[in-house]
Design brief:
Layout (H helix, E strand, L loop, with lengths): L3 H56 L15 E7 L9 H18 L4 E7 L1 H8 L6 E2 L4 H5 L3 H16 L5 E11 L2 E10 L22 H76 L1
Parallel strand pairs: 1-2, 1-4, 2-3
Antiparallel strand pairs: 4-5
Helix pairs in contact: 1-6, 5-6
């Protein structure tokens, strides 16, 4: 059985850890509010751009784009997002598992080559440990700490050029979707080829557009803008999900520390009571012996 000194040391250690987890929870909560604010600021732009593209596609039923060409998947590209640090529960483990499942699926389809764009330190480390042959396309660790549109645009442009040159046939996005503060959902989403089907449930608007200079140039402008916005939106989404996961993980850790402290306090009081009782019995026994 542990001595009073050992129990007291454990109580001090747990209290110190509890202070750290509580502070990390507050920091993550503040970062989560900031990340949510950035998403809310960007959503109106993305929503308006999507609405413009959908309206254009609804008016041009037979429109096609080189970026919408569906090909047999021989060359795959995967953009996968994780965090740069730990202590965020199963946030990174879920993405690594989703990546392994995706690679297994496409390897079974006899995919010849796989390019991986790892955004985040943890997924970059995991990709380097993969046993299947993949090509790592750069390092984007700073982009996860501070998501910015220019970085998202650079990745989107690389993917667009590679798709147009037939260097890749399909692009998948793997990330944690921020559904709520307590729920983050691992998502696998197609990025290229572009699905030109109108995504709105509303009936198509019967509008005779006057397009200047022409349909092709307008589409060549709108579709890449939409793809760049998509990468940036996913970055913001994953950043918010990370902070939410870390907030929940630190709250759970703090609650567990409280439970451990309660158990240790009870154990300490029992040990102390036994010690006091033993000392009293020794005193009583000694006084009886002197009579």
């Amino acid at each position: 059985m542990a001595s009073l000194k050992e129990i007291k040391g454990r109580i001090a250690s747990v209290k110190s850890t509890q202070k750290i987890t509580s502070a990390m929870k507050m920091v993550s909560s503040a970062k989560l509010h900031k990340a949510q604010s950035r998403i809310e600021s960007f959503l109106p732009y993305e929503s308006r751009l999507t609405a413009m593209l959908d309206a254009f596609l609804a008016s041009e039923a037979e429109f096609e784009s080189p970026l919408s060409e569906v090909r047999e998947v021989k060359h795959l590209a995967v953009v996968v997002l994780s965090s740069n640090s730990t202590l965020c529960g199963a946030f990174n483990a879920n993405i690594v598992r989703l990546l392994n499942e995706t690679l297994k699926q496409y390897n079974s389809q006899l995919c010849e080559s796989v390019r991986i764009y790892p955004i985040g330190k943890k997924i970059e480390e995991a990709v380097k440990k993969l046993t299947v042959p993949v090509q790592i396309m750069g390092s984007y660790i700073p982009l996860m700490d501070k998501p910015d549109f220019e970085g998202a645009k650079a990745i989107a442009d690389q993917l667009i050029v590679a798709f147009q040159k037939h260097n890749i046939d399909r692009v998948e996005l793997l990330y944690n979707h921020f559904k709520s503060a307590g729920i983050q959902i691992p998502v696998s989403e197609r990025f290229l080829p572009v699905d030109l089907a109108v995504k709105t449930s509303a009936p198509p608007i019967q509008t005779d557009y006057i397009i200047e200079p022409d349909k092709k140039e307008l589409a060549d402008s709108l579709i890449p803008k939409s793809l760049r916005s998509k990468i940036y939106a996913v970055l913001l989404d994953s950043a918010a999900a990370e902070q939410a996961a870390r907030t929940v993980a630190m709250q759970i850790a703090t609650d567990n520390a409280n439970d451990i402290l309660d158990e240790l306090t009870i154990q300490y009081n029992k040990q102390r009571q036994q010690s006091i009782t033993g000392e009293l019995l020794d005193i009583v026994g000694g006084s009886e012996a002197l009579k």
